[in-house]
């Protein structure tokens, strides 16, 4: 893809700051080993997409801020009802609180809609990062656009048909592609070095990650100049996340996008051909059961996931189990007590009742 030229590097970050992020790289390597759980399929090539033009002047990549901000404590995950045998659940029936179904869009800098899910995941990183935090950031990278920094005027370069030199950071012989969650992270980078000789472009996450895998990069450094809210994701983890995900990521795109009256129907239609997962675990008597979300009102929603990372990020020890749309339809129709399903309960999520699922259930 011509938009992602890799001809010139940029100055390396401060060694002490980079060393702090190196720990997250090592932890992410371990997370990549633990992210298995679904069948691996080869990710397809990504078609070149139009590049939205963002008229903002930003800097090249220097030192992170000298006064680090205190990291925000992560929100405690709220698990739904513990998995048990589908035919004879033994877990108590309780309300299953979840985060808001979708986040309100924000724009820190005019013309730059924030990737609110990725930004929240980065801001929620504690001082001591474990694999769960890394997996949560990885899953939220798979939502919305990422911002990249370009040497020179990206708009003029593209008008002339010139390749774009993307900003990278080098440390200990390793190269990291720099990407940003929105305007605030870009402003942090501007304040870090004061150089306004670069510009910004927005790209779909899939195009950015595919370029990461095709280039000489050891990982992607997210919001590198935002102290307390930055993370390196190593290339092996990104590769595995794309391989295990649905080729088009349509369900995730719809969940993270604006909600309209048509959203539920669009998600159900996408699920007919998407790769899907459920969360499985072993019940008290050794039988395999699937995770449900239950409420005191009596509603029961089978938990369905758009990616195995969505299961692992809940931290309940469940196994991601891949299934087809036909298998899902049969599972729902064989259990009349199910009210419907909840997709990606860690958020952004949506509940779909049997009426909304009618086109999918017809596959049973």
Helix content: 25-40%
Outline: elongated
What's the β-strand tally?
14
Strand content: 15-25%
Structural class by helix and strand composition? alpha+beta
Average pLDDT figure = 76
Number of domains: 2
Radius of gyration: 21 Å
- Biggest β-sheet, characterized? 7 strands, mixed
Q: What oligomeric state do the depicted chains represent?
A: single chain
Distance between the termini: 41 Å
List the helices and strands in order.
HEHHEHEEHEHEEHHHEEEEHEHEEH
Number of helices: 12
How does this structure look, described?
There is one protein chain. With 364 residues, the protein is of the alpha+beta class. The chain folds into two domains: 15-60 and 71-76 and 106-244, no CATH class; 250-361, Trna Endonuclease, Chain: A, domain 1. 30% of the residues lie in helices and 19% in strands. The protein contains twelve helices and 14 strands. The chain has helices at residues 15-34, 116-123, 131-141, 154-159, 183-193, 205-214, 235-244, 250-256, 263-271, 308-312, 325-333, 358-361; strands spanning 53-58, 145-151, 168-171, 174-179, 198-204, 219-222, 231-234, 276-282, 288-290, 292-294, 300-305, 319-323, 340-343, 350-353. Strands 8, 9, 10, 11, 12, 13 and 14 form a seven-stranded mixed sheet that branches. It has a four-stranded mixed sheet with strand order 3-4-6-7. A three-stranded antiparallel sheet has the order 1-5-2. A hairpin with a 5-residue loop joins strand 10 and strand 11 (300-305). It is elongated. The chain starts with 14 loop residues before the first helix and ends with a helix.
């Amino acid at each position: 893809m011509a938009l992602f030229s890799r001809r010139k590097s940029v100055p390396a970050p401060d060694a002490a700051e980079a060393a702090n992020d190196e720990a997250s790289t090592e932890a992410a390597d371990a997370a990549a080993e633990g992210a298995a759980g679904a069948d691996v399929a080869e990710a397809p090539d990504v078609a070149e997409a139009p590049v939205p033009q963002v008229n903002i002047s930003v800097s090249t990549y220097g030192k992170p801020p000298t006064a680090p901000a205190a990291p925000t404590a992560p929100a405690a995950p709220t698990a739904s009802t513990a998995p048990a045998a589908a035919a004879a659940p033994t877990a108590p029936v309780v309300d299953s609180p979840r985060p808001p179904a979708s986040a309100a869009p924000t724009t820190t800098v005019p013309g730059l809609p924030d990737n609110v899910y990725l930004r929240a995941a980065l801001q929620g990183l504690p001082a001591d990062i474990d694999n769960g935090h890394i997996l949560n950031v990885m899953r939220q990278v798979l939502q919305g656009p990422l911002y990249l920094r370009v040497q020179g005027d990206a708009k003029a370069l593209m008008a002339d048909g010139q390749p774009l030199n993307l900003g990278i950071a080098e440390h200990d012989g390793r190269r990291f592609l720099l990407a940003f969650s929105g305007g605030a992270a870009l402003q942090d980078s501007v304040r870090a070095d004061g150089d306004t000789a670069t510009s910004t472009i927005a790209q779909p996450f899939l195009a950015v990650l595919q370029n990461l895998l095709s280039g000489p990069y050891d990982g992607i450094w997210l919001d590198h100049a935002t102290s307390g809210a930055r993370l390196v994701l190593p290339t092996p983890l990104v590769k595995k996340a794309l391989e295990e995900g649905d080729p088009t990521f349509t369900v995730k795109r719809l969940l993270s996008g604006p909600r309209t009256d048509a959203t539920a129907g669009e998600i159900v239609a996408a699920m007919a051909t998407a790769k899907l997962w459920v969360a499985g675990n072993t019940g008290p008597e050794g039988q395999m059961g699937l995770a449900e979300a239950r409420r005191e009102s009596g509603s029961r929603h089978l938990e369905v996931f758009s990616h195995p990372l969505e299961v692992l990020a809940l931290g309940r020890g469940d196994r991601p189990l891949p299934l087809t749309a036909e298998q899902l339809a049969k599972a729902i129709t064989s259990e009349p007590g199910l009210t419907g399903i909840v997709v990606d309960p860690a958020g952004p999520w949506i509940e779909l009742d049997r009426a909304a699922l009618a086109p999918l259930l017809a596959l049973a």
